[in-house]
């Protein structure tokens, strides 16, 4: 098991002291929609909702997040893990604000409003 600690995002902001823990070693599917990036694994679904000033910008934002996030998750995917790695929690975006996360992911923005295009990130 490789646990990743991912902050909850709601209403364009990181929710203080609220995190999702996901076993990324079970990653199975990534789906890009018009406004959402849905990442699923064994028993979990992580849904990121983004927006933009129009549909085209929103789709660009979803793709930017996927291009950034999927390679990070793949580093921890699979069962080839030693005991030391399996006992660690990897912290994604630890201590970052939504604008900082958007900048890391390639400049996700709602034209002229950097950071407010990342609407939500939730685990189900």
Structure description:
The protein has helices at residues 55-74, 83-86, 98-104; strands at residues 3-10, 13-23, 27-32, 36-41, 44-50, 89-91, 109-110, 113-114, 118-123. It has 124 residues and is an alpha+beta fold. It has one domain (3-123). A hairpin with a 2-residue loop joins strand 1 (3-10) and strand 2 (13-23). The longest helix has 20 residues, at 55-74. The radius of gyration is 14 Å and the shape is globular. The model has no long low-confidence stretch (mean pLDDT 90).
How would you state the average pLDDT, rounded?
A: 90
The tally of structural domains comes to 1
Rounded to an integer in angstroms, the radius of gyration calculated over CA atoms is 14 Å
Structural class: alpha+beta
Q: Tell me the span between the first and last alpha carbons.
A: 18 Å
Strand order of the largest sheet: 3-4-5-9
Q: Roughly what percent helix?
A: 25-40%
Q: Characterize the biggest β-sheet.
A: 4 strands, antiparallel
Total strand segments: 9
- Total number of helical segments? 3
| % residues in beta strands | 35-45%
Low-confidence stretches: none
Q: Summed up, what is this model?
A:
With 124 residues, the protein is of the alpha+beta class.
Keywords, please?
124 residues, alpha+beta, three-stranded mixed β-sheet, 41% strand
């Amino acid at each position: 098991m490789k646990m990743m600690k991912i902050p909850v995002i709601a209403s364009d902001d990181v929710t203080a002291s609220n995190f999702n823990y996901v076993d990324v070693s079970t990653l199975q599917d990534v789906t890009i929609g018009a406004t959402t990036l849905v990442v699923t694994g064994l028993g979990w679904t992580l849904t990121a909702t983004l927006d933009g000033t129009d549909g085209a910008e929103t789709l660009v934002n979803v793709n930017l997040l996927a291009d950034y996030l999927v390679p990070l998750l793949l580093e921890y995917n699979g069962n080839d893990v030693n005991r030391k790695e399996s006992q660690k929690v990897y912290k994604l975006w630890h201590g970052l604000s939504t604008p900082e996360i958007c900048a890391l992911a390639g400049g996700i923005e709602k034209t002229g409003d950097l950071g407010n295009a990342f609407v939500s990130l939730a685990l189900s």
